[in-house]
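Chapter review. Work through the record for RNA exonuclease 4 before attempting the end-of-chapter questions.
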Amino acid sequence: LLKQKANSSNASLSACQTDTKKKHPLKAGSSQEIPALNGNGMKAKSPDQRDNGSAKDSPPLAKPKSKSVAADKNVNGTKSDGKGCKEKKKSGNILKEKIDIKHKRRKAEEHAEQQPKEAEIWFDDVDPKDIEAAIGPEAAKIARRNLGLETDPSEQSVEQVLVKEKASEGLTRAVAMDCEMVGVGPKGEDSIVARVSIVNQFGKCIYDKYVKPTEEVTDYRTAVSGIRPENINTGEDFKTVQKEVADILNGRILVGHALRNDLKVLFLDHPKKKIRDTQRYKPFRQRVKNGRPSLKLLCERLLNVQVQTSEHCSIQDAQAAMRLYTLEKKKWEAAVKNKSNNKNCK
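Structure tokens for RNA exonuclease 4:
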């Protein structure tokens, strides 16, 4: 009985092993065909082959980069923690500055080429204002520099140059006079007095009156004289002005520019030895290289101020003549005295 049980048990074990072989026909370590989804089969490697395979068959996988590391790189390969943007912006600003400097340098060179060269401005007896109108401000600047008229940055006003502040306003030993005139006659070519202004030695105005016309005015010459009909229609009578002026000039040194014309329209005379005419003073003519210099030219070259820039003012013209006289007063008076002594000796 025991032997029968043992045989029965062995038979069961053999049957079991046979079933197992049928279900798993492949041995361990052999390749196995695995059906793929698309119907193609592929061989699966054994665990030993997968672990011990060569790097060629199974290259090592690269370690995935963390998001934080990837985010730290920008397109240009620089760190994007803010420093890269700043550096890029800074390099852009430097490039822009270099372009601006080149542009400014090129503009300056073009401007310099357009400006007249100093050697080309050779005018001697031409008013810088005329040069400015004909050629331009740079040419006029060069001409003024050549004439010694270059303006000082702290240039004083005309009145500050011509009038002595806090000085006496009364009569002085020398006075300066200037007249404004209007035209009469068919073409306005003849002149009559329209305004008379007198200043003392310090440039203070001591007399200024408009004169009522004695004839019909055909040309007011407003652009030069500054006279308008309303100024002289209510002016002082000519005879009154003539007498008042004569009283002021009596026994005094009379200063002015082209005084012959002023005395002529007033029908007055004055001793020649007491006349100081800035147009006829020889040192002035030599200095400006002009035989008959204008008051405007003398003021520009000798006083470094501009007068008669628009309508003339008889007060300002008288002040300018007086300032030119006081500039040379000692030499001028010494020359007059020497001339008088020489005549007496003869």
